[in-house]
Amino acid sequence: MIRQLLTYRDGCTDPHRNLATEAYLTETVPEDTCILYLWQNRHTVVIGRNQNAWRECRTTLLEQEGGVLARRLSGGGAVYHDMGNLNFTFSLPTADYDLRRQQEVLVAACRRLGIPAECSGRNDILTGGRKFSGNSFYHHGGRSFHNGTLLIDVDMEKLGRYLAPSQGKLESKGVASVRSRVVNLSQIQPGLTVSHMEEALWAAFSEVYGLPTRRLEPSQLDQAALERHYQCFHSYDWVYGQAMPCTFSCGERFPWGELTLELAVEGGVCRHAAVWTDAMDESFAQPLARGLEGCPFRVEDLCLRVEEAPACREVAADLCALLRRQDI
């Protein structure tokens, strides 16, 4: 049961440092405590933990124009961040994790600002049928976080310029482009600023949980631990993922998300595997990649490995059907 509410905001706009702070706050959140961390990134594309950077983002263009690519711990899809976007993270013990209650904080904050909002599925928040907040989730070692974006006054031209969603994703959403299905809240409530939303969130956090809030100060954080997290999030290997020669690739969009499977095959055996997905529950991706390494490159052998992986139980039927449709 949550008995203490903490808030944190340090003004940093470096995405790798902000992701390091998110990881640190989640790793160290005390029992019976929920931390609401608000943060902003300047000119950044953030991709989900198991996404292929080159397929989701026009990386060269982003870098040429002074942008930064970052990879988060949680699943989900790619998002563009600038100073017209406010990010939030709820960090708390997994035993106290309550997605609907956390999302109610966001809806209540919008209500305070005169904006009607509603949750759509697990990971989107809408106003007037258009998305202004996408959410993602992470659970590890008895601690969890729920994070997301709030589009206040984001540069929509750049949002569409740097993100490169697959046609399958667009078709599954029933829209012609990324920009056609998102909306800035400043369009709904002219004059709205990031500061207005920030104040509304602090108040709604206290209102929904029925507890006072206490502010965490940067001096209270372990700077050495933060630096260790930063070095990970800033590293090329984390941001771009392991590069490998791919001799086989297949993919499809399923109701639970899009997936691409890449295999490096040598001597009839899968020597290396990569699984890229924007699924919200992406916990199967890394176990699946490990499980396919060393597997004979035959459909039934591949399917057997998929079916034997406990983490793949919910998606095994779809993955095996995909593999059986390939010309192997």
Automatic annotation (TrEMBL):
It catalyses: L-lysyl-[lipoyl-carrier protein] + (R)-lipoate + ATP = N(6)-[(R)-lipoyl]-L-lysyl-[lipoyl-carrier protein] + AMP + diphosphate + H(+). The keyword Lipid metabolism does not apply. One of its GO terms (molecular function) is lipoate-protein ligase activity. Residues 30-213 form the BPL/LPL catalytic domain. One of its GO terms (biological process) is protein lipoylation. Gene3D superfamilies: Bira Bifunctional Protein, Domain 2, CO dehydrogenase flavoprotein, C-terminal domain. Transmembrane segments: none annotated. Keywords: ATP-binding, Ligase, Nucleotide-binding. One of its GO terms (cellular component) is cytoplasm. InterPro entries: aa-tRNA-synth_II/BPL/LPL, BPL_LPL_catalytic, Lipoate_protein_ligase_C, LipoylTrfase_LipoateP_Ligase. Pathway: Protein modification; protein lipoylation via exogenous pathway; protein N(6)-(lipoyl)lysine from lipoate: step 2/2; Protein modification; protein lipoylation via exogenous pathway; protein N(6)-(lipoyl)lysine from lipoate: step 1/2. Its EC number is 6.3.1.20. PANTHER family: LIPOATE-PROTEIN LIGASE, LIPOYLTRANSFERASE 1, MITOCHONDRIAL. This is lipoate--protein ligase. It comes from Vescimonas coprocola.
